[in-house]
Write a structure and sequence with these properties.
By secondary structure, this protein is an alpha+beta fold. It has helices at residues 39-53, 68-71, 77-93, 104-112, 131-174, 178-195, 202-215, 219-238, 243-263, 267-287; strands spanning 3-11, 14-23, 28-32, 56-66, 73-75, 118-120. The strands form two sheets. The chain has a four-stranded mixed β-sheet. A two-stranded antiparallel sheet has the order 5-6.
């Protein structure tokens, strides 16, 4: 979802640059940080960006570099003439004074230093005549940011699929401790009876022990976790915009891993559960950046 795109358009008055930056976001939150874009074009541009990028905190910047002749300041002739007339009147009044009079060679430089003599030429940078070029510039910037996203997506794809594969591997390792775990639970119960010096009814004891061990059985959790892992991989492979769905699947994976840990009663299985949780947390963090 993170990305950066840039494009330029050469207009009659200068060069327009469009930059688009995107960060993680649940929806398409678009901020156009420029006054150059005409208000009547803003809605269409927002829709274009939302369709192309789908989600993210998206900032759009427009900058304009005017041509030298367009950027040059203009002399406001009316203001210059107004200043000139006023100074001439003053000049006439002081003509008889000992200060003497000021000639044109002195008046003009003085006038050019007065306020508002120079003004920047104002013009509408984006208009109907050049809108096709501007619109195409937005398309190119969006293509650029999507290329950036695709490159990042390839890295994310490998990273999260590798982590899911490791979770599947750790889950498979749990099986080799199943028999040992069951025997350890039986032995623990029998040792407790021995400590209490009790002689339970063997038939009833076996029934209760089977019931207790079944309550701690984690086979269903392992099966569901494998199903969730497969669904995760199928979704990231086939869904064009899997980000939100992957987050939900990761939550379900976490539920099965947590239940496995609560039922484990075995040191090595607990270690595997911790490893699975570690991988899953990294998957959750990365899935926030998947579109």
């Amino acid at each position: 979802m993170t990305g950066y795109g840039k494009a330029e358009a050469v207009l009659e008055a200068g060069k327009l640059t469009v930059e688009i930056r995107s960060l993680n976001g649940k929806t398409a939150d678009i901020a156009i940080k420029s006054s150059l874009l005409p208000k009547d074009k803003e809605l269409a541009i927002r829709q274009k960006i939302a369709n192309a990028l789908q989600r993210g905190n998206i900032d759009v910047f427009l900058t304009f570099e005017a041509k030298a002749e367009e950027a040059a300041k203009q002399i406001n002739k009316d203001i210059v003439l107004s200043y000139w007339k006023q100074l001439e009147e003053i000049n006439k009044k002081i003509a008889s004074a000992p200060y003497g009079t000021a000639d044109a060679d002195h008046l003009l430089p003085a006038i050019l230093r007065l306020p508002d003599v120079f003004e920047t030429k104002k013009q509408e940078i984006i208009n109907e005549e050049n809108w096709t070029l501007v619109d195409r510039c937005f398309d190119e910037a969006l293509e650029d940011i999507n290329r950036f996203r695709a490159q990042e997506g390839a890295v994310l794809y490998k990273d999260v699929t590798d982590k899911v594969a490791r979770i599947q591997s750790y889950s498979a390792e749990v099986e080799k401790y199943e028999k040992e775990r069951t025997e350890a639970i039986r032995e623990k119960i029998l040792n407790r009876f021995a400590e209490l010096q009790l002689e339970p009814d063997q038939s009833r004891l076996e029934q209760e022990m089977i019931f207790y061990i079944e309550k701690l059985d984690i086979n269903e959790e392992k099966v569901r976790l494998r199903q969730h892992c497969r669904y995760f991989l199928e979704t990231i492979e086939n869904d064009p915009f899997p980000g939100k769905k992957l987050g939900f699947i990761a939550q379900e994976m976490g539920r099965e891993i947590n239940t496995t840990g609560s039922k484990a009663n075995h040191n090595e299985i607990q270690k595997l559960v911790v490893k699975m949780k570690d991988e899953l947390e990294k998957i959750k963090e990365q899935s926030l950046n998947i579109l």
